[in-house]
Amino acid sequence: MAAPVSIRVLSTTAMKMVFEELSARFERETGNRLDVQLGPSLVLEKRLAEGEAADVVIVTGPGAADLASRGKLAAGSLIDIARSLIGVAVPTGAPRPDLSSADGFKQSLLAAKSVALSKPVGGGASGAHMAKVFEQLGITAAMAAKAKYGAGGAAGLAGLVVKRGEADIGIQQMAELMAVDGIDVVGPLPAEIQGATLFTAAVAASAAQPAAARAAIAFLTTPAAKAIVKAKGLEPV
């Protein structure tokens, strides 16, 4: 019988609650431990591109494809895990922004004193998308004066900024907003400005435990795991 191993996972923060729920179950079923390091996808992609070692990688679909093309991910190991919608949250009990249309949400943003979100460059996928949305809505300058950017990763979630009372509105992946207690998650962005993000898992080319890494990814695609993925604000693929 093989000795238990520790599997190093570099994962988008959007999977935080999924791993909190599933890591112990995985260890019970396999004997192996998941050592999960969370961060914004773009940051993780940069770290991997620069040579950081891992066993399992979970980043955006385009990011995974790019890393694979550079030889940073094992050929044939890419598996789509989940899609995530960008959502909106406010402090508990606060007035809710209008999510019925893009124009309605635009007016809510302009009325807010401050808005928490991921950095548009070097942050999460939602930050880059929202920069395009602000440009589309013609409010880039106005939002630059209101933006409160989280530090990224589990400690820098936009929901935490909202919870501390430092922002009237938080915008981030639905799963990341749901990871913060004590705020009201209003719902996803209006369809016409929504940006669904695909998250893909793969075995890193640098994997010290490639077989165990493949087993971990397979575990994330089981019906039981997919049910948890859905319960935590993501759409299983």
Q: How do the strands and helices of this protein lay out in sequence?
A:
Layout lengths: L5 E7 L3 H15 L2 E7 L1 H9 L6 E5 H9 L9 E6 L1 E6 L10 H10 L3 E3 L7 H13 L2 H7 E3 L8 H6 L5 E5 H5 L4 E6 L8 E7 L6 H11 L2 H9 L3 E2 L1
Parallel strand pairs: 1-2, 1-3, 6-7, 6-8
Antiparallel strand pairs: 3-10, 4-10, 4-11, 5-8, 5-9
Would you write up a description of this structure?
It is built from ten helices and eleven strands. With 237 residues, it is an alpha/beta fold. The chain folds into two domains: 6-83 and 197-236, D-Maltodextrin-Binding Protein, domain 2 (3-Layer(aba) Sandwich); 86-193, D-Maltodextrin-Binding Protein, domain 2, CATH 3.40.190. The strands form two sheets. A six-stranded mixed β-sheet has the order 2-1-3-10-4-11. The longest helix has 15 residues, at 16-30. The chain is elongated, with a radius of gyration of 18 Å. The two termini are 33 Å apart. The mean pLDDT is 94.
